Amino acid sequence: MHPIVSALKHHKTTVVLVALEIALTCAIVTNALFLIGDRVAAMRVVTGVADHELVWARTTGLDLGQDTRMGADIDADLAALRGMPGVESVAMANTLPLSRNYMSVGAWRRPGDKKSEIDNVVEYAGTPGLLHTLGIKLSAGRDFLPQDYVPYTPGLFGSPDSKAPPPTAAIVTHTLAEALWPGENPLGKTFWLDSDGKEPVQVVGVTGHLLNPRITKYQGADRNMILPSTRLVGGVYVLNVRPDMRGAVARDLPGVLTRIDPARMVKAEIYADTIADYYHGDRAMVWVLLVVTGCLLALTALGVVGLSSFWVQQRTRQIGIRRAIGATRRDILRYFQFENLLIVTMGIAVGSLGAVGLNLWLMRRYELAHMPLAWLASGAVVLWSLGQCAVLGPALRASRVPPVVATRTV
Amino acid sequence: MFDYYLRLALRRCRQNVPMVLLLVLTMAIGIAACMTAMTIFRALSGAPLPGVSPYLYVATMDAREEVDKDNPDYKQPDSLLKLVDARVLVDAHRAVQQVAVAQSLTLLGDMDGRKSEQAYGLMAYGLAVQALGVPLRYGRPWTEAELAANAPVLVIDTHVAQKLFGTEDAVGRSVMLGQRSFRVIGVSGEWKPRVQIFNLAENAGSVMGQEENFFVPAQAALDAGVGPLIAGECGKGAPVVSFQSAAVAQCRWMETWVRLDTPSQLADYGRFLAGYADAQHDAGRFAYPPQAKLYGTQAWMTLNRVVPDDVHLNLMLAGAFLLLCLVNVAGLLAARFLRRQGDVAIRRALGASRRDVFVQHLVETGLLGLIGGALALPLTWLGLWIVRMQPVSYAEAARFSPGVFVILFALSVGVGLLVGILPAWRVCRQPPALQIKIA
Questions:
Q1: A10-67 pLDDT, tens per residue?
Q2: Which of A322, B88, B156, B435 has the smallest number of CB atoms closer than 10 Å to its CB?
Q3: Do A157 and B29 touch (CB under 8 A)?
Q4: Listed residue (A125, A112, A116) closest to A167, CA to CA
């Protein structure tokens, strides 16, 4: 048997402890890195609107329970907002990407044919100028024409407006177009809305990408349509603002609106903050995982340094003897490096099994994705280099043990 | 013997301060991480209303009255009922106590209209104060007769009483609620579930419980034009329903909570509930098989995942972190003890038994664990402070409590002993003769 292996057998306890430590670190760090990658990827999804030029505001009537004012003075509000310094354009929408509120409906490929329904399509609706205000780029087709706009609020039950049919024109995302008519040009095609799929809507434009108000399992990330509406009940005001004026506009906006109608609460928000807020939990988790990963690696490195130093000290005499009978400094250095490689590899072997097990458990518990095996490799590389870095100091110290030590009694 | 070992341990700690510092700090960081996560977890997963919520059950059934096709959000029967159904369940008096509640947010004012306070409260059908264990400071709860007569009475908390009337004892005064004046019949102390338990379907994402500032009979409030904060599930053809609307006759907006003390009561009530729901289905009112079921508070919270996944994940991470710290310290301790084989051999040769050697080393690691625990205390405090600074929904739960001290103490001694077992066992097993020779 190789001398390194047989030497290891003489201090089983400590070797097992180091290998166990490496295994634990491997299992946890691999999964933590995977989780970090997963969350960072989720946070990098683009919204499809001009994130840094928008301010938006919600208003709530104070006439609790009566709703008479809702949607009453939209035109006056819009005009006042348009007059604010720094505001480029203004529109009203039912919701915004990543603002969490959403309405979804079924879109029917054939009228009244239940089997042709694509479910859970998110509805955006907005007043004239919404596309321009949000900075949405059409990849094909045209913006809405003035005659396309009708009073319509998605998901509204029971009001006079809700009896009105939906608009007859829509702009759909590429994703929705592909779901409705795979591989075909969606422009000019018709789909049907309403609970029975009786109301025809024609596609007049296609957006490359527009994120949903909330990314969910059912609605997906960007399967949605924009509908033209003259009047929205309970909608939000969206302002396209010069980026340096966003703070001032958000601050002054409630005053401007309450001057028109004081009986309401107005809450204005810079849209970039809305996005940051949406991802807050993810960001916090990424930080926690990064700190934990860093601490785990540091701890493991310290453990390896401590035990390697102990072994070097314990074997000073043996090192001296080896040196006296002809081993070079390099041989000694290599010995400790190889020993470390062996122990770390043992740890990684056990740890990889643990990592896969942990991933499977996390998948079941938290609906997480399956970890690609490449992450195991990355974890292994991290730990191998960590082990080699940690052992370098003690190994160099060992290589500097002079041969004369062999002749001394300790 | 014990204090001799203790003195030995202290002396040895002084011999190699950097090493001891490393060991102690490693344990401290591990313990602090674990304590931080555990404090939050304990605060969130304990009984929301100590002494009350363990006996509270919420009634769930599929009470949809029309076919609601392809609603992916409707995975299982929820707890929302129409007032008519809630009334029947409460009036049946089949449980020890029963109440149907919904949250409301409204303006409470004094009669001159000079002072007002926006407050959260509960609209209730049934004897809410008794059933929910609301502590009354002054006055009395409302009676069945007042409830039946839709009498305009309410219970406010000391905070609102102080704000509106400048005194806590506001019994007998009148409060403007909606369009009517209500007589204050009782004043309650602070009542706040530790975590959110009401209307979990619509309160997704809010973790911490809401302090309720007033309690009012539901029908009286509706008559005054005050509705629930969230109208719940309204059928099609209902009038426009928005926040705080009082036009909720077509909506399922109340949750029925019952108090059941024994398993047989639970079983009986379960049968009664199922019987009522099935009868409504058979009569054609409920469109779906109702699958009526009672959930205990804790089970209901688990089912609705009130405690965020991140809190669980953090707890597991902290646990794993502590485990790794332990393995690390055990390894370093093994090295530290084995370095002293010579001393041990001499002690053994002089007559110390293995047991003595083992205990001596355990005392040393226990001491290190205690020092680690002492260091972990400020670190835990720091960790909780950092969590409180985060805009997360459960930030408020990150508070130091006396219970934490006890756990911390136990954990640090436990950790110290645990990490010592393997190294101490290793060092005491060496045969003395061989060790002397090595030395």
A1: 778 888 888 999 999 999 999 999 989 888 988 888 899 999 999 999 887 544 444 4
A2: B88
A3: no
A4: A125
Looking at the whole model, is its pTM more than 0.80?
no
Measure the CA–CA gap between A96 and A104, rounded to whole angstroms: 13
- Amino acid making up residue A257: L
Are residues B237 and A157, on separate chains, in Cβ contact within 8 Å? yes
SS (H, E, C) B376-421: HHHHHHHHHHHHHHCCCCCHHHCCCCHHHHHHHHHHHHHHHHHHHH
Tell me the chain B residues in contact with residue A156 when contact means C-beta distances shorter than 8 Å.
240
Backbone phi and psi for residue B204, each to the nearest 5 degrees, phi listed first: -55, 135
Domain boundaries, chain A: 3-44+280-407, 51-278
| Interface check A10 vs B, CB under 8 A | no
Per DSSP, A36 falls in state H
What distance in Å separates the CA atoms of residue A355 and residue B89, rounded to the nearest whole number? 51
Tell me the per-residue pLDDT of A91-136, one tens digit each, with 9 for 90 and over.
999 999 998 888 878 888 888 777 788 888 899 999 999 999 999 9
Q: ipTM of the predicted structure?
A: 0.73
The reply to whether A20 touches chain B by the CB within 8 Å rule is: yes
pLDDT of residue B106: 84
Determine the residue of chain A that is closest to B389 in CA distance: A284
Average pLDDT, integer, range B241-253: 70
| Lookup: tokens for A290 | 């990064």
Kindly list the residues from chain B whose CB atom is less than 8 angstroms away from the CB atom of residue A24.
Answer: 320, 323-324, 327
* pLDDT band with cut points at 50, 70 and 90 for residue B334: confident
Mean pLDDT of B232-241: 57
| Stated length of chain B | 439
pLDDT of residue B109: 85
- A158 → closest Cβ in B238, B243, B244: B238
Q: How far apart are CA A47 and CA A79, in angstroms?
A: 27
Contact map slice: A 131-170 vs B, CB within 8 A: 156-159
CA A58 to chain B, closest CA, distance in angstroms equals: 14
Contact A65 B244 (CB under 8 A): yes
Q: Are strands A224-228 and A117-126 parallel, antiparallel or unpaired?
A: parallel
Distance from CA of B106 to the nearest CA of A (A): 8
Answer for the pair A81, A133: CB distance below 8 angstroms, yes or no.
no
Name the DSSP class of A384. H
